[in-house]
Amino acid sequence: MSRGARGEDILKQPFDRVRDYVAAKSEGEASFGDVVALAEITADSMQTFFAAIDRTIYRELREIAEYITNLRSEIAHLRAGELQKDRLPKAGEHLGAIVAATEEATNSIMEAAEAMLAAAGKDEATFKAVVNDKVMTIFEACSFQDLTGQRIARVVETLEQIENRIGRFAAAVKSDAPAAPAAEDPRERRARELLLNGPQDRGVAIEQADVDALFADKPVSA
Amino acid sequence: MALDHSMPVLIVDDYSTMLRIIRNLLKQIGFEDVDEASDGTQALSKMRDKRYGLVISDWNMEPMTGIELLREVRADDKLNRTPFIMVTAEAKTENVILAKKAGVNNYIVKPFNADTLKSKIQAVFGE
Fold first, then answer.
1. What pTM was computed for the model?
2. Measured between beta carbons, which residues in chain B are less than 8 angstroms from residue A115?
3. In the predicted model, what is the mean pLDDT of residues A124-132?
């Protein structure tokens, strides 16, 4: 029942009493006693009305207090401090190390390839020795994949934890309303205007053949 | 315009690894005079100091992107005839169309191989 409907019910009973009293006394003129009696009925009805409002407000305040207590508990479960001080910096370190490891490996492989190309004009024995040596360098450099794979797994684990905690928090605070779109910052606006989309996933990215078709003004495959 | 392997080529990319890869591929194709720039601003400065026969540029760089460099080049009376190839991971149709409208001569999607680079260079020079 809504608060308005409940208020109407509370008021209805004293008003009925006033109506009955006035109906009973309608034959004669109102005396001082009648006025006092009406005043008592009015005061009584107001007390009943305000008591009902007090109970409603109390219940609503109790619900708000319970909500806040629940919210505090869920915020604690987010463990924002741990994410901020430990997991996110660690994830950043892992990503930095991945970039460094892949760069180092790529440079080693390219140096080896360049050395083999440079040895192409030398005598057969020298060329063979260089190729053997540089192929081993390439094999060694490829071991970066194992380490970067492990680091990527740790970063993915952190992201999954964040996703789970935020999901639990959103459910606890019943945050199912669509969020208002965030204001676009200058960096995002620049990326949108200059089409800085970055690498696309397979299936979304167009192929070189599609690009060639666009340059030849032919229809692009779906 | 005929393809001359002795012409200077400017490659523009913010990743030193990619610059090295393209430089090696160009060397294999037969280009020896290759200069490098790490973004559009540096590339524009080099282009105003030296006449390049071909520019091969990435798209996503800071502070000046490849598309901004292309627009600057096409708006400059002294540079606007320089052949320009975009080599980028930006693989959306809208990117290709925008680059084409801005006057790019060809467009290569990363990752790419030596044959693709060679064929696009040849196509730009009508071979």
1. 0.71
2. none
3. 95
> How far off is chain B from A74, nearest CA to CA, in Å?
41
ipTM: 0.88
Domain range for B81: 9-122
**Three-state DSSP state, B85:** strand
Q: Is residue B2 part of a domain?
A: no
Per the structure block, which two tokens stand in for A206? 């167009």
In a domain, B83, yes or no: yes
Chain A hits for B96, Cβ within 8 Å: 206, 210-211, 214-215
Domain with B62 in it: what CATH number?
3.40.50.2300
Q: Count up the domains in chain B and report the number.
A: 1
Report the greatest alpha carbon distance in chain B: 35
Q: Residue ranges of the alpha helices (H) in chain B?
A: 16-29, 40-49, 66-75, 93-102, 114-124
- Is the residue at B57 inside a domain? yes
- Helices and strands per DSSP (H, E), number in chain B: 5, 5
Asked if residue B3 belongs to a domain, the reply is no
